[in-house]
Amino acid sequence: MRDADCQLSGCRRTRLALRHLRGTLPGRRTRRCPAPRGRPPRPDPRRTASSGPGQTGQGLGRIGVQPRSVPHGLARAPRRVRFPAQPSRGRTKLPAGCRRKGVPNVRVLARLRSAVHIWLRSHDLDLLFSAYPYFLPKKLLREKIRAAAPRAHGTVLDIGCGDRPYRFLFRHVHRYVGMDLNARRRPDVVGSAEHLPFRDQAADTVLCTEVLEHCAEPEKVLREIRRVLRPGGTLILTTPMSWNLHYEPHDYFRFTRYGLALLMGRAGLRILSTERVGGVFALCGARLTEVTCKTVARALKWIPRSLAHLVVMCLYVVLTLTFFTASRVLDRVDRTDAIGWFVLAGRPTEEVP
């Protein structure tokens, strides 16, 4: 009986040692994180270290496991699973001392980016890439509209606003309303220029840029503009005379200054001034830049796209700046041809019935 008791007690001690090694001993449960794939699990120093009686390494030698001694103070606790913090619903706060640690301030970067964008837009340099490859006509149009923007007042109605490229020029007005036929561009009002969804005499200023050539009945559009304009109101109108087809198949007309004067008179509007946008050299430079860039882009399909894009953009910048500088001087020689026309008109205060 004594040998059997010793044998049973030995088996029990073996089972307890195994359970102690696996961490399933009652009253001493520990949880270990799973080891990453491809790496062996890290042994727990508290279970493999051999020390005095009652320590973790006691009894391991009886089951064939050689305990490993760990210097005092170097034993590490098992890893704990840490869940990511929940995102805050309120305003994100920067950690304290972020400037001292070299972390950039988000607000400072946003203000710097806004300042750079305002500076580029004030010098029309943002059009160099946003209006590719039509920088030259877009810049000439913006210069004309910027010069006429101080005349706008009250409520400004932008017919065919698109992406509102001229809204920043009318910050001084009381109200700016953008209307477009395409609802995907998210205008303030969706409607047609031939049937304006506004009451009579609702606007003090009407802006209509590069829209009249896309309307099947341009005279009807001008009559609608006169209807929504208040007496003494201002119309800022631009339209092309020599330009390629665009927005096909809804590209119907090209206008001369005399054709615009005829349509304005029939609609009951009085022309205050008519100016040409660009000249023959600006027109040739813009068309040559467009054709050259598109031809080179098609010819460079055999090289990586990023490299081809870099080559085309460098060529585009050089040609654009060259033709723009030359047109400033050479367009003064011939004043008969133009890219388009800029018309400043108004509704008379006293109308003849």
What's the helix and strand layout?
Layout: H1 2-22, H2 45-48, H3 106-122, H4 127-130, H5 135-148, E1 155-159, E2 175-180, E3 189-190, E4 203-209, H6 218-228, E5 229-240, H7 257-267, E6 270-277, H8 280-299, H9 305-330, E7 340-346
Parallel strand pairs: 1-2, 1-4, 2-3, 4-5
Antiparallel strand pairs: 5-7, 6-7
How would you sum up this structure in a few lines?
With 353 residues, this protein is α/β, with parallel strands linked by helices. The chain is 36% helix and 13% strand.
How would you describe what is shown here?
This protein has 353 residues and is an alpha/beta fold. Among the domains are: 144-278 and 341-353, 3-Layer(aba) Sandwich (Rossmann fold); 280-337, no CATH class. The chain contains 9 helices and 7 strands. A 7-stranded mixed beta sheet has the order 3-2-1-4-5-7-6, with helices on both faces. It is extended, with a radius of gyration of 39 Å. The termini are far apart. The model is unreliable at 1-8 and 48-86 (pLDDT under 50).
Question: What are its keywords?
Answer:
seven-stranded mixed beta sheet; single chain; 13% strand; 9 helices; 7 strands; 353 residues; alpha/beta; Rossmann fold; extended
